[in-house]
Design goal:
The protein is 61% helix and 9% strand. The protein is an alpha/beta fold. The chain folds into two domains: 24-245, Orthogonal Bundle (MetI-like fold), CATH 1.10.3720; 287-446, P-loop containing nucleotide triphosphate hydrolases (Rossmann fold, 3-Layer(aba) Sandwich), CATH 3.40.50.
Length: 450
């Protein structure tokens, strides 16, 4: 009820504001008292209604709108593809930079003249629309893609998230705000530049041509009427495209698929070293955990526990350039969850099957599993991250401080749950807690570079 009242007040306030501006417009027209010099809203509406009854009016609106939209949509598609290419391949961004800077900076009027020489007036608006929209959408999309969190990209890599899932669940939330801003800005600029190009080129059946003719015959009311048409088309198009851009919401239910087939294998890593900027952070002779067994990496902070897990997960190479290629699942030190989605969707994203939901409910109450992750407490989020790692199909199970934020009772419950879902896989866990080693029935592996 409160929301309806608030919405009603906002609508009423906007109506009052628009009415006030229309009244001011009409008062100025009365004061000027010269419809050739300044037509009021009444004269402009009458002229709009008169012209709207003519077939040439409808043809002009349809033709101009089709040309502008064709250029705009093509620019959007090309900007989308090239922004992804530039994001993935830095050389592509360098290669495109001079071209994008040129078309962003060159005056529209100069480009209009060039295209008039090259192709005539018929396709002029199509080219101008493309030129106005492309650099803006390309720049905004590329900026948004650069905002994709590296940690989420690593999560997607480890869990072998398909590209279409990455696009919808990881990339899109990052670039969407920038895309919406780009669309909002581009539509208005596209209509203004497109009609301006028509006024210069004067193609057949075009808004700009009709507006120019009204100007020649000193039909000021007609000029104002066409301006209103342009503003209306721009407003409606912006709203429509903004809706379409945001029409793929967070999934509320999972379209579960068959989980990948994996067979547990033992972890076997020989002599491994890792250094950063000349500082050695990891140096072990071997790391072996047979299938079905557990081991805990112990040691102080900075002793290389997380580095070892990331090497095993294939995220970084060791100093010899070797990367592990086993199918692993990992509970990262950070949760790395899709905050807008619920717990089940986060499991679906990692390739879990429908049976995983039942196991998830044993670790986290069902009502919490249906809430967006952002609404959960730190300990609840940790359980979701742990469940994703344990329930995702894999050959190895890697856990990095997996029970952080859990009290003693919950920690014991979570460890029993992990062991119940081990499914013959080797478990390698990094922990500071001696109790975790005992509860997991794990062998202790000390890491200490000192």
């Amino acid at each position: 009820m409160q929301n309806k009242k608030t919405t009603g007040k906002k609508i009423g306030r906007k109506v009052l504001i628009v009415t006030g501006w229309l009244l001011l417009w009409q008062v100025i027209a009365w004061v000027v008292h010269n419809p050739i010099y300044f037509a009021g809203p009444v004269e402009s509406v009458k002229e709009l209604l008169r012209q709207a009854g003519e077939s040439v009016f409808r043809q002009a609106v349809a033709a101009s709108y089709a040309r502008i939209m064709a250029g705009m949509l093509l620019a959007g598609a090309v900007a989308y593809l090239l922004a992804f290419a530039a994001w993935r391949i830095p050389f592509v961004e360098e290669l495109l930079q001079p071209f994008v800077s040129f078309i962003r900076s060159v005056p529209v009027a100069a480009v209009v003249v060039v295209f008039l020489i090259w192709s005539g007036a018929e396709y002029l608006v199509f080219y101008i629309s493309f030129m106005v929209v492309f650099p803006n959408l390309y720049g905004n999309l590329l900026t948004g893609l650069k905002k994709v969190e590296p940690q989420m990209k690593e999560m997607a890599q480890v869990f072998r998230v398909p590209f279409w899932k990455r696009l919808r669940c990881i990339y899109r939330p990052a670039y969407l705000p920038y895309l919406k801003t780009g669309v909002s800005y581009s539509v208005g600029m596209c209509f203004k530049s497109g009609v301006a190009a028509e006024i210069i080129g004067l193609p057949d059946r075009a808004i700009g041509t009709r507006l120019y003719m009204d100007k020649i015959y000193l039909n000021t009311a007609g000029v104002f009427a066409w301006m209103a048409v342009i503003v209306f088309l721009s407003f409606i198009t912006e709203r429509l495209l903004s809706k379409l851009v945001g029409c793929c919401p967070v999934p509320k239910a999972c379209n579960w698929a068959q989980a990948r087939e994996t067979s547990p294998t033992g972890i076997a890593l020989e002599k491994t070293e890792k250094s950063y900027a000349g500082r050695k952070v990891l140096d072990i002779s071997e790391c072996k955990v047979p299938a079905g067994e557990s081991a805990c990496i112990c040691g102080p902070s900075g002793s290389g526990k997380t580095t070892l897990l990331h090497i095993l997960a294939g995220l970084i190479p060791d100093d010899r350039g070797q990367k592990c290629s086993a199918v692993v699942s990992i509970c990262f030190q950070e949760n790395r969850l899709w905050e807008e989605a619920d717990a089940e969707v986060n499991l679906w994203l990692a390739g879990c099957d429908e049976k995983s939901a039942g196991e998830l409910y044993k670790l986290l109450p069902k009502e919490l599993c249906k809430k967006p992750v952002r609404e959960l407490s730190g300990g609840e989020k940790r359980r979701v991250a742990l469940a994703r790692a344990v329930l995702a199909p894999s050959e190895w199970l890697l856990l990095d401080e997996p029970f952080t934020g859990m009290d003693e009772a919950l920690r014991k419950e979570a460890i029993l749950w992990v062991l119940a879902n081990q499914k013959g896989r080797p478990i390698l866990a990094a922990t500071h807690e001696e109790e975790d080693v005992a509860l997991l029935g794990a062998r202790k592996l000390e890491l200490d570079l000192n």
